[in-house]
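Quick review question:
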């Protein structure tokens, strides 16, 4: 019995199952420890006598076949054992009161009596239960016998065969036990080939007795190592089981001639073998496997390596889709010595693919592959989609990581609304959702990361039904700058023992240049990624970048990364407004500063740039095995970033679709496994990329799942022919034509069979065979027909797989003789050599010629989808050929054709329309290539890249079979074929074409026209009668000292070659005048003459011979040519003598530096210390370099700021005791203009873009240049016209700033302004423009008005033009008068303050304002009460200004200090010896002006105070008046 409820209990609902037995003894017969029966619920005794939980045996006694034979009664040993068998009445006694009374009053006799009662009740209940169960079992057995169909079931293995490993010459026996009804038929297979015992008498013995089946193999040898399969089949189904047999040899039976393997020095270590050829066999392998997400799957193969070497370890590798697998938490690999195992611990859809085991030895390797399919796990919510897959990180930075994934194949029946991305910090288990709303794009930037920490990610899909399971987590990735990541991953270079010092340009103080090649590499509605290249400068360490953006159409640039610049040349931008267009640029920065911005990008609109791919097309299923179908399709057109394809299958008519793959495949052919044998399926395909899934393709034609013909070779009978038409009709026969089937079944069509039937009054009769033997042509004459009767026809095609189904019945044709004069229709239209702009149309002549023979054909064409009116003729004159090359077609357009024949009577009927053909050049298409070998043999060569095993090359001439094979020799090797012309001549003129059968129409042609034949014959002649190839013909060149060299060079020459040197038909030889040299290694032939004399005028010839190859080259030196060469020789001779002393290698020239400095330079040679170099301008020495550094040989003269005065003739003179050399540079007139133009060009290119600023006078447009020259021609333009300057429009230069001032601007001044640098050279001038309009004009005008108002206010505000002293010290009783200048418009209001309180004018303190310019302060008699801080305050509507001084009234007269003024007894200012001179410059005036000492006197006072004292004392009777300038403030 099993541990579950027996089948005979499931039908009895009223059976009492409350009885439970908890004894630990084993008194139940034939039960296992897991068998359970019902018994007493003992939970009510948990507080009294708790019993331990034990095995619960049954009371049924069963035999080995689990058949019930009786029951057993348990033996109760004590009160605790039988207590478990109490009935319902006994439960009432187990109350607390009953237990207490039993313990108090019950004697041992009562306990024994109670035990006997309980035993009887238990036996009675058990007997009743078993009797009832036996009745149920007998009833069910009777029901089975009455319903025999219920006993039928598919075969099943009770015992499967086991694998065996045996020694050679031993016997092995495989056996199994199979149940099934009816009795199954059992077949044994070896490597999927049925075993026939009669074919190998005595080798195999097969027995079947009492459901036990065995296979015995006698005297096993090594060839018996294989995989054996036993298959059992009946009407209910078929099952199979596998077992492997491994046959081994004894160690001593290895071939003796092989050398012994080398062993390492370690005892029992690994073997180092040589001289042994290993044979590797992979048996007991895994087949196509199916798993489900979350499951564990093991793939294993037994590997046999012969001969067997102790401890020899082969290289065992596992691959998935061609990618090597490594051990990980998902993949566990094990090698036991003879079996390789791969365990997928937790299946995910990422694990789906083609798994390959490769076992490598020194003798090679063996592989085995099978596909593993992984289905989605059951959704947690019904209707939810499958989990996404292949989650990875595309880009990682310190503040974002871009996560990508692939969409699942299963959407749960509803379209996927989007995806949620979750992140988890490494080291934690807390997942955080990254996006609040689902994203549809399969890429998402995750932000909000902590720099330096690592994260893993997962993705979930969602539709309207719910959320999918999460995907497999991604690999951890760190949030850090890519430059930091690369630096962390980098490793130090190994120590080489050398320290190499290189010279690097200093980087300090260098501002980096512009970044290069800025582009937008990825753009979606959520983010945008920029990438660029660093600047080209070397040595710029620590360069970082600022990224700036600008809304398209504006010039307002905004820095994106304002806080920290980025280190890597890649940056992602977020939070851009969807639908807006932006431009971007990047600046470099380092410690020296921020560089110029890069060129801005093109305007980029924020949004998803990637569209979902188009649907695939032309889905074609092909039979493969009895459980699989090969599906192929055409790829999606113009698909960008295609991820792959998903294939779905449906049983024909059910409309229930199931995925064939759960991981996208990036091919256009896929084998769909796991199909039901005999069912018809239809298939559809859709493409996927990051933007989403495409629409489904059209459904394929239904295909029945069964093994293809030829053991998996996709051969089948052809599909029906079509397009049956009549080519000719006579009284008792009709000629029919038809079109080839669209699918030939994978094998050549061997012929066609035609049937016909008579149609009487519209009622068709029976079909009759027209031909017994198949006809190869697609045309046939059906005879023995009755005149004026109507007939229908059908055609069947046949190949090696058999005869296909017949075509549809043709139209009804009347059998009557044709008498028309024009010819019948051409037939059998075929198209070859299809290219994107051309194709070749072939046809056959009409069977019915008409009254006269056919003398030409017309070809018509139209687009396949065009109406009938679109037919147009391709030839105006009839062609005599039965082929026509159609040119000037539109690529990817589909066309159809028809042909008409004509004779003298006229043009006949049109042919049937051809099938539509698309004008496209298929990938891998090659053309026929003509070749001429070294022996002059001409051949045509053709190569096919997509051949099949059945493909053949078919050559034709003028598209007809070539009958004369004597003129051509054909040769085919592999996928290449060629025809060789045995004796090319005029008979070989024509078009040669080659067709490759069993392909998609691979063909090509080559036209050998009379001109082409002539060209090929010339090449052939050159190869037969070769010439020595020359790299260069005979040439002449000058050597030093005026020597003349004649030379030529042959491309290839042997050591046996020789040369004759001929001058004017006379052979010359080696001597004083001629020096010959022939280098056979390089092929250089030369002859050198010391000089040219007048008698050397003539023709020089070099004649070469190398075996049968010859060649010669001549050079004619006569007339002016010879004279020029002779003159050049004399000049070079003189030059040689000049260069014996100091000389110029490069004569004087000039260059302009970017700093606009002009440098005169020359390069000299053969210098020494005594050599002098003198500079002259206009004959006057200007510079002498006494200590010349000749290491570099360059002398320079720098003109820092060139002007007109620098124009002149410059000369450099070199001289010493060996000689003298002079170089002159004329920098006058045009040369000086050219020099200045180059200077101006540098200045112009350094100019900055025009900018707008405002002043208090108007609007100023300006630019900066690196250097300004007074000769720089500059023109300002307004609206493309030169500006006429006036008082309102002025231009000028301030330093390096060029400006245009617009005073008092108005709206008429709006427009485009430009500054043009007028450079008169080939490069033209440079113009920089700016638009003064719109917002720019309004902003500038507003700023001008503000500045103007501020200037007016500043000009007219109240001012104290003359200041007051800081401190005035005066004796008591004296008079004090202070005066200062005031100004302002309107006239300011004057207020005097003492100690911050306003003063009023009275007799003691007189306050006056005179002439609106002077404010005076007078105290008639100073007293100590006047001591204090005084100030004057002037105020008008434009502003306020004040001045202060301190009055100190004392007794005595101390010296005047730095900031104090002292007066004598009369109030006159007295300067002391310590008074600074700047204080003495203060003008001091009294009432009597003549008594006031002048400034000069004050200065004299400081120099001779004694003399000055008398002067002051003379005027000490009057009060003083002090006037101060602004310096005293």
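Suggested answer, residue by residue:
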């Amino acid at each position: 019995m099993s541990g579950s409820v027996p089948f005979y209990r499931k039908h009895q609902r009223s059976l009492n199952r409350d009885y439970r037995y908890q004894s630990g003894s084993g008194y139940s017969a034939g039960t296992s420890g897991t068998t359970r029966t019902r018994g007493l619920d003992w939970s009510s005794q948990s507080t009294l006598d708790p019993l331990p939980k034990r095995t619960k045996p049954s009371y049924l006694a069963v035999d080995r076949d689990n058949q019930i034979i009786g029951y057993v009664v348990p033996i109760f040993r004590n009160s605790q054992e039988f207590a478990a068998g109490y009935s319902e009445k006994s439960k009432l006694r187990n109350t607390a009161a009953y237990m207490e009374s039993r313990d108090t009053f019950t004697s041992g006799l009562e306990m024994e009596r109670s035990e006997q009662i309980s035993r009887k009740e238990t036996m009675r209940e058990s007997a009743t239960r078993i009797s009832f169960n036996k009745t149920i079992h007998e009833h069910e057995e009777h029901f089975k016998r009455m319903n025999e169909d219920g006993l039928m079931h598919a075969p099943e293995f009770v015992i499967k065969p086991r694998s065996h490993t045996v020694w050679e010459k031993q016997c092995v026996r495989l056996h199994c036990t199979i149940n099934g009804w009816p009795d199954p038929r059992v077949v044994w297979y070896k490597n999927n080939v049925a075993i026939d015992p009669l074919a190998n008498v005595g080798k195999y013995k097969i027995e079947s007795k009492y459901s036990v089946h065995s296979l015995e193999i006698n005297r096993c040898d090594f060839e018996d190592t294989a995989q054996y399969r036993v298959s059992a089949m009946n009407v209910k189904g078929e099952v199979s089981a596998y077992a492997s047999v491994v046959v081994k040899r004894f160690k001593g039976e290895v071939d003796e001639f092989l050398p012994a393997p080398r062993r390492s020095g370690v005892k029992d270590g690994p073997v180092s073998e040589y001289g042994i050829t290993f044979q590797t066999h992979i048996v007991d392998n895994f087949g196509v496997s199916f798993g489900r997400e979350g499951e564990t799957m093991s793939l294993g193969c037994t590997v046999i390596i012969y001969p067997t070497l102790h401890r020899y370890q082969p290289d065992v590798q596992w691959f998935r889709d061609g990618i090597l697998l490594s051990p990980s938490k998902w993949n566990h690999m094990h090698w036991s010595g003879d079996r390789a195992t791969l365990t997928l611990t937790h299946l995910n859809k990422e694990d789906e693919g083609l798994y390959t085991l490769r076992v490598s030895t020194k003798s090679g390797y063996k592989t085995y592959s099978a596909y593993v399919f992984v289905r989605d796990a059951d959704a947690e919510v019904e209707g939810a989609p499958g989990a996404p897959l292949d989650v990875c990180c595309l880009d990682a930075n310190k503040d974002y990581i871009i996560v990508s994934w692939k969409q699942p194949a299963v959407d749960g029946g509803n379209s996927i609304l989007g995806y949620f991305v979750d992140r988890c910090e490494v080291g934690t288990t807390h997942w955080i959702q990254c996006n609040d709303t689902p994203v549809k794009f399969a890429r998402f930037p995750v932000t909000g990361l902590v720099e330096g920490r690592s994260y893993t990610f997962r993705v979930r899909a969602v539709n309207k039904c719910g959320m999918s399971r999460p995907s497999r987590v991604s690999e951890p990735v760190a949030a850090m700058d890519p430059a930091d990541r690369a630096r962390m991953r980098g490793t130090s270079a190994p120590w080489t023992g050398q320290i190499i010092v290189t010279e690097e340009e200093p980087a300090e103080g260098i501002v980096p240049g512009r970044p290069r090649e800025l582009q937008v590499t990825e753009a979606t509605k959520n983010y945008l990624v920029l990438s660029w290249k660093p600047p080209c400068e070397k040595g710029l360490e620590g360069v970082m970048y600022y990224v700036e953006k600008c809304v398209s159409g504006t010039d307002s640039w905004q820095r994106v990364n304002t806080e920290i610049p980025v280190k890597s040349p890649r940056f992602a931008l977020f939070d851009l407004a969807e639908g807006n267009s932006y431009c971007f640029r990047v600046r470099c920065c380092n410690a020296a500063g921020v560089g110029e911005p890069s060129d801005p990008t093109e305007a980029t609109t924020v949004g998803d740039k990637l569209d979902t791919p188009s649907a695939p097309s032309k889905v074609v299923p092909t039979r493969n095995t009895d459980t699989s179908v090969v599906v192929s399709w055409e790829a999606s057109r113009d698909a960008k970033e295609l991820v792959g394809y998903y294939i779905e299958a449906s049983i024909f008519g059910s409309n229930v679709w199931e995925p064939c793959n759960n991981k996208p495949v990036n091919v256009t052919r896929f084998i769909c496994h796991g199909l039901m044998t005999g069912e018809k399926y239809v298939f559809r395909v859709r493409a996927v990329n990051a933007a989403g899934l495409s629409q489904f393709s059209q459904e394929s034609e239904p295909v029945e799942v069964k093994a293809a013909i030829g053991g998996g070779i996709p051969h089948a009978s052809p599909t029906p022919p079509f397009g049956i038409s009549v080519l000719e009709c006579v009284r008792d026969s009709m000629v029919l034509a038809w079109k080839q089937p669209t699918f030939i079944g994978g094998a050549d069509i061997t012929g066609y069979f035609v049937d016909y039937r008579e149609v009487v009054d519209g009622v068709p009769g029976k079909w009759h065979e027209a031909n017994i033997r198949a006809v190869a042509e697609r045309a046939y004459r059906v005879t023995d027909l009755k005149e004026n009767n109507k007939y229908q026809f059908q055609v069947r095609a046949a190949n090696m797989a058999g005869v296909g189904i017949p075509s549809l019945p043709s139209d009804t044709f009347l059998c009557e003789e044709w008498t028309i004069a024009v010819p019948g229709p051409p037939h059998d239209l075929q198209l070859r050599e299809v290219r994107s702009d051309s194709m070749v149309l072939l046809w056959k002549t009409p069977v019915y010629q008409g009254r006269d023979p056919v003398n030409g054909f017309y070809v018509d064409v139209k687009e396949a989808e065009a109406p009938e009116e679109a037919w147009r003729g391709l030839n105006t004159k009839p062609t005599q050929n039965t082929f026509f090359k159609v040119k000037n077609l539109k690529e990817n357009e589909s066309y159809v054709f028809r042909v008409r024949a004509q004779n003298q009577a006229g043009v006949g009927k049109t042919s049937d329309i051809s099938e539509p053909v698309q004008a496209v050049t298929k990938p891998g298409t090659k053309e026929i290539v003509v070749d001429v070998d070294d022996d002059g043999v001409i051949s045509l060569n053709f190569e096919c890249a997509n051949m099949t095993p059945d493909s053949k090359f078919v050559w034709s001439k003028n598209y007809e079979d070539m009958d004369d094979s004597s003129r051509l020799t054909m040769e085919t090797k592999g996928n290449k074929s060629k025809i060789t012309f045995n004796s090319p001549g005029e008979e070989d003129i024509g078009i040669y074409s080659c067709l490759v059968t069993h392909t998609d129409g691979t063909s090509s042609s080559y036209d050998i026209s009379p001109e082409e034949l002539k060209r090929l014959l010339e090449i052939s002649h050159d190869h037969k009668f070769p010439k020595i190839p020359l790299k260069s013909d005979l040439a002449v060149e000058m050597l030093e000292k005026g020597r003349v060299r004649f030379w030529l060079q042959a491309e290839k020459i042997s050591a046996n070659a020789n040369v004759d040197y001929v001058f004017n038909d006379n052979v010359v030889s080696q001597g004083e005048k001629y020096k010959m040299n022939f280098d056979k290694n390089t092929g250089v032939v030369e002859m050198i003459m010391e000089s040219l004399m007048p008698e050397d005028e003539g023709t020089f010839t070099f004649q070469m011979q190398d075996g049968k190859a010859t060649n010669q080259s001549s050079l004619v030196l006569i007339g002016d040519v010879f004279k020029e060469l002779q003159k050049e020789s004399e000049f070079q001779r003189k030059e040689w003598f000049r260069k014996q002393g100091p000389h110029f290698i490069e004569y004087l020239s000039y260059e302009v530096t970017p700093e606009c400095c002009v440098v005169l330079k020359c390069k000299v040679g053969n210098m020494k210390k005594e050599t002098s170099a003198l500079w002259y301008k206009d004959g006057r020495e200007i510079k002498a370099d006494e200590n010349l550094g000749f290491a570099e040989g360059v002398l320079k003269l720098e003109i820092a700021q060139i002007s007109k005065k620098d124009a002149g003739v410059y000369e450099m003179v070199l001289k010493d005791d060996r000689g003298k050399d002079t170089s002159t540079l004329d920098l006058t007139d045009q040369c000086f203009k050219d020099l200045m133009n180059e200077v101006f060009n540098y200045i112009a290119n350094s100019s900055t873009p025009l900018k707008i600023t405002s002043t208090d006078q108007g609007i100023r447009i300006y630019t900066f240049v690196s250097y300004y020259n007074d000769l720089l021609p500059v023109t300002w333009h307004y609206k493309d016209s030169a500006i006429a300057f006036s008082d309102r429009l002025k231009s000028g230069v301030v330093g390096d700033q060029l400006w245009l001032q617009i005073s008092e601007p108005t709206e008429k001044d709006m427009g485009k302004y430009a500054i043009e640098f007028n450079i008169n050279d080939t490069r033209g001038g440079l113009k920089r423009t700016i638009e003064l309009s719109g917002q720019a004009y309004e902003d500038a005008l507003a700023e001008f008005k503000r500045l103007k108002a501020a200037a007016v206010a500043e000009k007219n505000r109240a001012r104290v033009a003359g200041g007051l002293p800081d401190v005035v010290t005066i004796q008591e009783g004296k008079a004090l008068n202070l005066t200062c200048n005031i100004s302002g418009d309107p006239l300011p209001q004057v207020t005097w303050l003492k100690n911050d309180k306003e003063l009023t004018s009275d007799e003691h303190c007189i306050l006056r304002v005179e002439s609106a310019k002077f404010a005076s302060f007078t105290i008639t008699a100073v007293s100590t009460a006047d001591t204090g801080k005084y100030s004057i305050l002037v105020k008008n509507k434009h502003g306020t200004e004040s001045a202060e001084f301190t009055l100190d009234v004392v007794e005595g007269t101390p010296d005047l200090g730095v900031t104090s003024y002292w007066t004598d007894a009369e109030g006159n200012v007295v300067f002391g010896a310590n008074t600074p001179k700047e204080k003495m410059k203060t003008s001091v005036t009294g009432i009597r002006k003549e008594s006031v000492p002048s400034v000069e006197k004050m200065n004299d006072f400081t120099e001779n105070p004694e003399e000055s004292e008398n002067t002051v004392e003379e005027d000490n009777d009057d009060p003083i008046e002090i006037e101060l300038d602004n310096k005293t403030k």
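Why it works: The first strand starts at residue 60 and ends at 62. The radius of gyration is 56 Å.
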